[in-house]
Write a structure and sequence with these properties.
It is built from 2 helices and 2 strands; from the N terminus they run H-E-E-H. The chain is mainly α. The model has no long low-confidence stretch (mean pLDDT about 80).
Length: about 110
């Protein structure tokens, strides 16, 4: 079995795009429903854990202190503050909206 040896060329990783978060032009109204608030913040926290850029200044978010005295900004706290400030746009799918009947069933 003869295999020709070809030189391996190094592959350069693609240049990273500018790390600018997408902030809505006008802040959206924070959800009035606390369960919706939690759902939106949880999805945003997942994005932050996966490497998304925060949309707020981290100095404005309460931080916990690590073992060596460094500030640790938990993604959940950052996400909740972003949602509270209206920096996370969201939509409610039509099939999720509940319809309340006008007349009570007897």
């Amino acid at each position: 079995m003869n295999v020709e040896q070809q030189p391996i060329e190094p592959v350069e990783p693609p240049a990273p795009a500018a790390a600018q978060p997408r902030i809505p032009a006008e802040p959206v109204e924070p959800p009035q429903n606390r369960f919706l608030f939690v759902d939106i913040a949880a999805l945003r926290a997942k994005q932050l854990r996966r490497g998304a850029v925060p949309r707020i200044d981290l100095l404005a978010v309460p931080a916990t202190v690590g073992a060596h005295g460094e500030a640790i900004h938990k993604p959940e706290r950052v996400a909740m503050e972003e949602v509270r400030r209206g920096l996370v746009p969201y939509t409610i799918p039509a099939h999720v909206v509940a319809v309340v009947p006008d007349t009570p069933d007897a």
